Amino acid sequence: MPMNVDVIVIGGGQAALAAAIAAREEGARVAIITKGKAGFGGSSVISDGVQSAIFSTGDSPETFFEDMIRGGRNLSNPMLARILAEECTFRVNELESKFGIPLERERKISTPGHSFPRRVYAANGLGKNTTKVLRQYALEIGVELFEQSTLIDLIKVDQVVVGVVVEKAAELHAFYAPSTILATGGFGGLYASTDNPKDVSGEGIGMAWRHGAELVGMEFVQFYPYRLQHPANVDVMTRIFGKGAVLLNEGAERFMADFPRKELETRDILSYEMFKQNDVYLDFSNVSDEDLAKDSPYVYRLVKKGHQGEWKMYPVQHYCMGGIKVDEWGRTSLQGLYACGETSGGLHGANRLGGGSLTEALVFGRRTGTMAAQEGVSVSKAFEIPAFGENTLPNGKELEVSQRLKEIMWNLVGIERTTNSLQRAEKELDLLAAELNEDKGVTALQLQDKVRAAWAAAFAGAMRKESRGAHILQDVRGEQKQWEGNLVIKGKTIEFRQETVSERT
Ligand SMILES: Cc1cc2nc3c(=O)[nH]c(=O)nc-3n(C[C@H](O)[C@H](O)[C@H](O)COP(=O)(O)OP(=O)(O)OC[C@H]3O[C@@H](n4cnc5c(N)ncnc54)[C@H](O)[C@@H]3O)c2cc1C
Predict the structure, then answer these.
(1) How sure is the predictor about 308, in pLDDT bands with cuts at 50, 70 and 90?
(2) Is the beta carbon of 166 within 6 A of some atom in ligand 1?
(3) Both 174 and 261 in a single domain?
(4) What is the dihedral of CA 441, 446, 449, 453, to 10 degrees?
(5) Does ligand 1 have an atom closer than 6 angstroms to the CB of 319?
(6) pLDDT tier at 505 (50, 70, 90 boundaries)?
């Protein structure tokens, strides 16, 4: 039986929970539909839990706004950046005042790109300390959870999104609502080397695009430098670089020594400098045991387990600045469809500052949920579940396509890219899509949507003929003034749009 609600929220991370709570508090009947368990999935739950707020003497929303514009290399949507700067402190403080999560404020160290200390996190670190509380709160106020359920498709009638098709335990279900919010995260899971969990795989972005939604900034993919590769694959955490840790190359040289902020340069710069070395090693011999335990608990645990050898580092795919284009209320270019969190694009421009994404989830999750509850298209009747074909993919095909997709993204749309590698990626992704074309089952449809998100990243990358932020082209070095604007993709067309500084008010 199809189900009718007022607001559908797809995803179970911080953005989805923030949106669902806001919509429910507006009086809407809200369904969260997510792959795993809400509050225990996506990047949010494994994140370091750092949000940004203004609490330092001399800091202001204006300074934070300017930091974001500078960090995003002048491509951040100015209106979205201003809203984040103005609303972040209230939303972050609310974690404590409304949801009862004890917060710690790091008052000494500024995250790279931030002019003042702004880091706020749930005591004991880790994103799950926030998301599990938000999940509980959502349940208490009556948000309905549909878990272990995967979004397969949007239902669109007369160019308007009126609901979704969801697969649960190999059965399809339809949900209808005046408003549907996508909070499905980025497309990090499409990379061979990533710190994102595997439920974050970009199909929400590909699906929205297939239905006609605009995408923005897809060429900007952030690689995270603070990742240990050996003896374990864990985050090192930025804080210890403020307490004496350094990075050395195979010749034991501190290759960041001549940079003004040393190892605390923004992620795009540091990742690229690391990538240029043969090997990179972490040296934390100057960090006290006490600081290590507090500021880098994963590394501390490995020390206590007795690891003696090398501490090897390598950048991994971490975050997608691009995504579905939204306005300040999370509206996409498709009527009835909203997006928030990492699924959406535009706020962070060419490079995101640390602590910006979970804050974005709180600020724009709330805005999107509120607006989705207040407006929406009219859904007067429940429609039938759209028909899908049989799954005819041979055994092992899904895995094979997923692996090829990951290799294409890492090798051709990765840290080091050229116009040529990006164009090759487009072609290889076209071939991959063609192999799935004959199959009309839901597995092929999901794979196709992942390939679509990947293709959009390669397509936009090949179009941008400059190096800016996280998009570092080997064949065109440096920023070019004429490229100070955003690439917006709709279908297979791409448009260059400039949001100028005068629009920053
Ligand atoms: C290791 C790590 C550390 C990080 N640390 C920080 C930090 O300290 N501060 C910060 O600001 N940012 C951090 N980030 C980035 C940040 O965690 C993410 O950008 C943010 O959590 C995104 O939240 P979200 O709710 O938009 O998406 P996610 O938390 O990724 O959630 C996406 C949800 O959508 C669901 N989903 C996806 N596709 C479907 C589908 N087809 N059907 C149903 N459900 C679907 C997933 O299961 C998941 O529940 C970190 C990221 C990583 C990987």
Answers:
(1) confident
(2) no
(3) no
(4) -160
(5) yes
(6) very low
Q: Which of 264, 289, 314 is the last residue of a domain?
A: 314
- Evaluate: CB of 317 within 6 angstroms of ligand 1: no
Q: What are the structure tokens assigned to 260, written together? A: 């003004």
| 346 and 240 in a common domain | no
Q: Are residues 208 and 296 in the same domain?
A: no
Regarding the beta carbon of 296 and ligand 1, being less than 6 Å apart is answered: no
Q: pLDDT at residue 503 above 70?
A: no
d(C-alpha 118, C-alpha 355), whole Å: 8
Q: Is residue 380 part of a domain?
A: no
Q: Which two tokens stand for residue 320?
A: 């997608």
What integer pLDDT is reported at residue 380 of this predicted model? 62
Among 44, 222, 347, residue to substitute to test ligand 1 (most atoms within 8 Å of Cβ): 44
Are 30 and 152 in the same domain? yes
What confidence score (pLDDT) does residue 376 get?
Answer: 76
> Two tokens at 300?
């501390």
Q: Could you give the 3-state DSSP secondary structure of residue 30?
A: strand
Residues 190 and 339 grouped into a single domain: yes
Looking at the structure, do residues 322 and 275 belong to the same domain, yes or no?
no
| Threshold 0.85, pTM exceeds | yes
